[in-house]
Amino acid sequence: MRLTRRSFIKGSLVAGAAAGLAGTWRSGQKWFREARATGSQPEERIAYTYHPPNCGGRCSMKCTVRDGRLVKIEPNEWPDKRFSLICLRGLSEVERVYSPDRIQQPMKRVGERGEGKFEPVSWEQALDDIAAKLKELKERYGGKAILFKSSSGVEYAYDDSLSASSRFVALLGAQGQGWEGIDIGAADGHNLVTGELAFGATQNEITDWVNSNLIILFGSNILETTMTDAQFFFDAQEAGAKIVSVDPVYSTTAAKADQWIPLRPGTDAALLWGMINLVLENDWYQDDYLKKYSTAPFLVRQDNGKLLRESDLAPAGSPDKYLVWDTVNNAARPHDAAGVSPALEGSFTTDGIQVKTVFTLLKETARQYTPAWAAETTKIPEQVIRDLTREYALGGPAVLGFGYAGTDKWYHADTFGRLAAILGVLTGNIGRVGGGVGGISHHITAWNALLAPWPLPPQFQPAPREIPFAEMPFKPNSVRAFIIQGNILQQHLASLDHTIEWIKKLELVVVIDPFFNPSSLWADYLLPACTCFESEYEVNNLQINRSHVLLQGKVIAPLFQAKTDFQIQKELAERLGLSQYLPKTPEELQRVRLASGDPALEGITVEALKANNYVMRLKVPEEPYRGYRDHKFPTPTGKLELYHEVLLPEGMALPKYEEPYEASPQNPLYKKYPLVYIQTKHRFRAHSQFSNARWLLEINPEPVLEINPADAEARGLKDGDLVEVFNDRGQVRVRCQFTPEMRPGMVKISEGWWLRYFAAGSFQSLTNPTLNPRQLKEIHGPVVPFYDSLVEVRKV
Amino acid sequence: MDRELVELHRARQVIYAALAEVFLQVPEASMLQRQMGEKIFGCFPLETNRPEVAEGVACLRQWEEPVAAGSLEEAVRGLRQDYTRLFMGPGRVLAPPWESVYRTEERLLFREPAMQVRNFYRRHGLEVPRLNQEPDDHFGLELAFMAVLAERTAGALEKAGAGIVAVAGGEAVAGQNLAEARYLVEEQHNFLREHLGQWVEPFTLDVERKATTAYYRGIALVTRGFIMDDEEWLLQDILPLGGYR
After folding, report:
1. Which chain A residue's Cα is nearest to B3?
2. The pTM is what?
3. Whose CA is closest to A185, among A418, A365, A1?
4. Residue A14 · residue B7 · CB < 8 Å
5. Which residue has the higher pLDDT, B234 or B141?
C-alpha cells in the first residue's frame, strides 16, 4: 500500500494513540439511534389543521405529510364550498414551519433586558425557574402580580381573550387582559347603542351583501385583510350593490369600490354627523322603526338630563321603567304599557318636570352639523355627502361597515361607533335583510354556537383587572410577572419607548412564540411554541368559524423542542401543583367544549369531525346569518339606545363631534409636526404575524414610509430616499415611497413590521398612547389611539 | 503499514467525532478541558498541506493561551454566547447549521438534502433520535456519521489484518472484511462528495466571518481544511489505486 502525504500521522498519535483518543471521543454513534424504519417507499398521509386567530380567514387546511414532513398545504373542502379557500399567508406556512429562524429550545436571558443575549436552557430548567418565580410572586403579592396576554396567532390563549379554553388566568388567580386596547374603539360606542359585545357586529353575515343596494365601508381594506371574503364583495357588486369606500387612502378596496371618498383622516364622525343631519332634516328616518325598536321616544328631563322613569312620577314606580309621551292619553306612560302610542318628537311637561324626547334632542344636536359644516370638516364636497346620504337613507337596504383600524385607532373612536349605529337605527338598517352596521372584517358575523368552558372549581377566579393594559406602562399597578404569548409589546401598546421602560422594571417576562418576535427581545425566558401544524397530541384544538366547526389535528410532530401552548400550560401547572384541575389532553377539552348542549352542535363530535375532513357545518339554517331580525337587543332596555346617561358627566349623553385628539390642525403641535401618521394593515401580514415570512419578504422586502409627492417635494425628498420620521415620542428610519393615491398631509407605514426590518427605531415608537378616560366606562375600555399621531419627516 | 492504515482511520474517526461534538453541543468546561488536554485541535494530528488547517490551529492556539492562563469559566461564557448566536439564534441564525438551508433555493429545513442524508444513515443502520423533529442534516450529525464510518472502516481493516499485507504485497485477497472496508470508504467518499463537501465551504465561511471568538473561527478553518483534504485523500489516494481489492 502506498503511503500518501496525508497519511502521516503526527507523533502524538503514532502507534495506538488514536485508539486511546477514540476512547475519549467515543464514536459518532452516540448522536444516533438504531434505524427503525427500513422501507424506502415514502409514506404519505393527509392531515388537517386550521389557521389560528386574526388572519381574517381561519382557513381549514388540508396538509400532505410525506415521510413525517409537511410538504403541501391546500384548502380543505368545507361543506359550504365557498369557504374552501386559502390565501398567500396560509400557502406560505410551509416556509414558516421549516424556517431556520425558529426558536429551537428554551432560552434564558444572560445579558441586560433588551440586549438580546440568550443562552439555551432545558425545558426542565426554564419551567422550574418560571414556576418558582410565579409561586413566589403569588405568595408574596397575590395572583394580581401575574399578568397574561396573548396576541393574534395564538389559539390556546392563556388570557381567555378569544376562547374560554385555557383557564390559566383563573387557575392562578392572575390578571388576564384580552383584546383591550386594540380594535375595540368603534365597538365601545357601537355597544352603547346596540348592546352587541363582539367588535361592534350588528352586521349580517357578509354573504348577505348580495341583498344590499349600497355598502359603505369606513376605513376598511377588506380585500386585503379578509381576502377569502373578497368573493362576497364582488358577488354583491355583480348583484347590483354599489360599494363606497370612505378612506383617506386609495386602498385595494377603494380601487375596486364603485366610489372612493377620501376624507381627511380622523373625521369619519363628522361625515356621519352630516349624514345624520340630512336624514333628520329631510325626514328620511324610519318613524315606526324608531318608535318600536329604539329609545328615540324616551323622555329626557331637562333639569338633570336623565331619562324620565316611572319612579320620577310615583314613589312606588319602578326606576327601570322608562316613560314615553303617549299620544293617546297625552301623558307620560311606560314605554311598554299596553296601547301606548309614543310621540317621536316633542317637548312636554309632566308633574312639573320639563321633558323632551331623545329624538328631539338628537335633532337639536344634529342641527349644528350641517352638510356644509361636514364638508368643511371632512374636506369632502358637500354634494358628495348629500348624494351619499340620500342613497343610504332612501335606497336601502344598506350596509354601513367598518374595519378595525381606519376608524378605530383614534382617541374618539367610540363616538364614531355610536354615530354609525345611530345612523343605522334612524334608517332602520339594523336587523334588516341586506342591512347591518358594524365591523365587517374576518367574517366576524356568522352562525355561531356556544362552546362550554372547561369547568374549574369555584375557588379559581381571575384577579380583577386593575387598570387597562394600555395604561400599565404609565400608572402604578401590581404586575410583576408578564407571560406573553405572541407579540404584545410592539403590537398592542403605542409609544414603544415607554413600553420598554415599563418592561425593564418587571421581575419576570416570559415570551412564548415559535419565532423571535419583537417582544422576545425583552424576555427573561423564551419558550418555543408549536405552529398550528405541530402537536404532541392527535387532536389539538377546535373553533367555530364561518358557521362551521373546525377541528385542528396534529399534522407533524413539534419541530426541535417546541411545545404546544397546551403542553406548556400543563407542565407549568404540574410544577404549581394545579394540573389536576386541567384537561389531560386537548381532546378531553374539546369533548367538554362540544358538549355544551347547544342545539346547533347536535351530532358534532370529535369522531364525527374526524370522519368529515375535520370541518362540519353547524346545525343551522342554510341562509346567511342575519342578526337581530326580532329587534330585541342585549341593552338594558332591550332597545336600540340613542341616549346614554352614563356619559352625562362628560356631556356626551348624546354624542358631539370632537376633532382628533392629537392629529388635528387645531392642535398647536400641528405646527411642529404637520403630518398625520397612520399604520394600515397589509395583505401579507395579520398584525405582525408573517412579518418574518421569507417568501413574502421576497416581494415586500422592507417597510416604507408612504408619502404624497406634494409633501415629499416640500421636504426635498426623492422617491426611495432614506428618511427619518419623528415626533417627541421617538423616531424611525425607513425609505420613503411616493404615494400620490393618498391625501396630502398624512403619511403611513403599514402595520406589524418587526423591529429588525427598520433601518433604526420602530413604527411603534411614534404612536400616541393617550387613553380617553370616558372609555373606562365603556364595555371594552379605552382604545389606544395609534393613528391619532402627528409626525414630521426629514431626509437622513 | 497495516497498523498505520488502521491508525489513520482511527485518527479520522477521532477528528470527525471531536468536531461533531463542537458543532452539536453548547460548549461546556469539560468539553474544552478535554480538547485542550488532548491537544486535539491545538496540535492537529494529521499532516496536511491545507493552509486553512494551519491557520485554524493558530487561531485555536491563540484562543487557548489566555484561557489556559486565566479563567476557563469566563471563556466558556464567551463561547456559549458565540455558539448560541451562530447556530441557534434567537432570531436570524448567523450560520444555520443545516445542509438543506445552504443547498436549497428556499433555504429551509428538512428539504431534499435532509432526506438523502437520512437514507445514507439508514443504509448504515442509523437514524437521528428525534426523527422529523431535529433535522437529519445538521452539520455536526454529518460529521458524526463520518466518524461512525471511519470507526467501522478501522474495525473492518483490523479484522482483515492479514489481507492488507497481502494487498500491499500485490496479492489479491478478497476477504469479506476488506470488501466491507472498501464499501465503507466508498460510502464515506460518496457522503463527502454528495453532502458535506457540497456545503462545508459556504457554511464554515459563515462561521468564520460571523464568529466573535477565535475558537469558532479556528474550528471553522480547521474543519474546512480537513474535510476538503479528506475528500481528496479518499478519492485520489485510495479509490483509483483500488487499495482494498
Report:
1. A15
2. 0.94
3. A418
4. yes
5. B141
Instruction: Read off the DSSP letter of residue A554.
Output: -
CB contact under 8 A, A9 and B45: yes
Q: How many residues make up chain A in this entry?
A: 796
- Reported as a single tens digit per residue, the pLDDT across A332-342 is 999 999 999 99
Express each pLDDT in A113-137 by its tens digit.
Answer: 999 999 999 999 999 999 999 999 9
Instruction: Find chain A residues with C-beta within 8 A of B144's C-beta.
Output: 28-32
Whether B233 shows a pLDDT value over 90: the answer reads no
Total CB pairs under 8 A between chain A and B: 207
- Interchain pair A25, B151: CB under 8 A: no
Kindly determine whether residue A34 and residue B127, on different chains, have CB atoms separated by under 8 Å.
yes
Query: Are B213 and B207 spatial neighbours (Cβ–Cβ below 8 Å)?
Result: no
Task: Flag if B45 and A12 touch (Cβ within 8 Å).
Answer: yes
Inter-chain contact A33–B47, Cβ cutoff 8 Å?
Answer: no
Q: What sections of A145-221 are H helices per DSSP?
A: 168-172, 185-194
Q: Of A450, A446, A432, A452, whose CA–CA distance to A621 is shortest?
A: A446
Q: Which of B26, B133, B141 comes nearest A120 by C-beta?
A: B26
How many angstroms separate the CA of residue A729 from the nearest CA in chain B? 27
What distance in Å separates the CA atoms of residue A699 and residue A115, rounded to the nearest whole number? 31
